[in-house]
Design a protein that fits this description.
- This protein has about 150 residues and is of the alpha+beta class.
- Among the domains are: about 35 residues, no CATH class; about 55 residues.
- It is about 60% helix and about 10% strand.
- The chain is built from three helices and five strands; from the N terminus they run H-E-E-E-H-E-E-H.
- Strands 2-1-3 form a three-stranded antiparallel beta sheet, with helices on one face. Strands 4-5 form a two-stranded antiparallel sheet.
- Helix 2 packs antiparallel against helix 3.
- The longest helix has about 55 residues.
Length: about 150
């Protein structure tokens, strides 16, 4: 009888060890990479990088569930921030393109006017209106053509 109890204890102990070894070790590492982005990985970060262990080996304790929820919230917040940055970058790019288009139209009109036969009146530094001479007209035309080339050609 003692042999049977001893055998039962040995077998159950070996079974417990076998079960413990078959459960995967799920350690999640959290760190900030060299570009300032928050990273999560099952692989350890590069040597010399400070990190934090987010999830310990499986055994599902109540604290781990809270960490998973926190991790999910952090990821959602990062995704939201990234979407906002992307939206702002697209908006800025569109505004720059709109301004470039407007400048192109202005430059084309200036070239057209300067190539015409009508008199060109310009305001000088003192605020007086002055008719420009042919030499000044040529200088202004070159500037306008340069502006048109810059703003109208991508």
């Amino acid at each position: 009888m003692l042999k049977q109890v001893l055998l039962l204890l040995i077998v159950s102990g070996c079974g417990a060890v076998a079960i413990a070894q078959t459960q995967p070790q799920q350690t999640i590492y959290k760190w900030i990479d060299d570009q300032g982005k928050l990273q999560y990985s099952e692989l350890a970060p590069p040597p010399g990088v400070a990190y934090e262990t987010v999830r310990k080996p499986t055994g599902a304790t109540p604290g781990e569930s809270a960490l998973s929820n926190q991790q999910t919230k952090e990821r959602e917040e990062l995704a939201r921030q990234e979407a906002e940055r992307k939206e702002q970058a697209e908006k800025t790019q569109q505004e720059a393109q709109d301004q470039r288009t407007k400048n192109c139209e202005i430059a084309k009109k200036n070239v057209q006017v300067l190539q015409g036969d009508s008199q060109i009146v310009k305001t000088d530094a003192t605020g007086k209106k002055v008719v420009i001479d042919p030499q000044q007209r040529e200088v202004e035309l070159k500037k306008a053509q340069k502006d048109a080339d810059y703003f109208c050609n991508p």
